[in-house]
Design a protein that fits this description.
Length: about 180
């Protein structure tokens, strides 16, 4: 029996992002290489920039509606304004069972025709697709605040973003173009 959830990465890219604006720009660049049916898994602590990245991605895809954290609705569908794919933005934090619960959400959208972005999806939604892009956002090491004094200190905005393409879909994808 195969274990499809443990395949070797097709490509890995590490990017340092210095501001929320740059995070949004990374999302806009990422939108250019995403295709219908792509699964993007976002991992990072609260405030890391997952929704900011997804907002940029939505702008790049040209979808309708403000991209906000789907924490309380679990999933939000942003239909395309043009010919592109819909964006399905999922917060899996409170989902326990993964795929079955995802299907139970009755998203009124064809997942193969959409770009699916799942926050907090590790260990929950891998079975949706063997081909997926895993994005981990970490705060840069060495951030220190002196008391409450962070005024003028921009180091708190710095993030290390690691993009790992898994599966055949990402073997040919040009992740390096995102580093531009």
């Amino acid at each position: 029996m195969e274990a499809p959830h443990h395949q070797a990465p097709a490509g890995v890219l590490k990017i340092t992002v210095n501001s929320p604006g740059q995070m949004g720009e990374l999302g806009r660049r990422l939108a250019k290489i995403l295709r219908p049916g792509d699964l993007v898994m976002l991992t990072g602590e609260l405030g890391a920039g997952k929704t900011t990245l997804t907002r940029g991605l939505g702008e790049g895809l040209g979808v309708r509606g403000a991209v906000t954290s789907p924490t309380f609705v679990i999933a939000r569908v942003h239909p395309p304004l043009g010919a592109g794919p819909a964006l399905v933005h999922v917060d899996a934090y409170r989902l326990g069972g993964g795929l079955d619960e995802m299907e139970d959400l009755d998203l009124d959208v064809s997942l193969p025709d959409s770009v699916i972005v799942v926050e907090w999806g590790d260990g929950k939604v891998e079975e949706l697709s063997d081909d997926r892009l895993r994005i981990v956002i970490d705060r840069a090491v060495g951030d220190t605040a002196v008391g409450d004094t962070t005024v003028g200190d921009t180091t708190d905005e710095v993030r290390e973003v690691t993009l790992t393409g898994l599966g055949q879909r990402w073997a040919d994808a040009d992740l390096e173009s995102l580093a531009a």
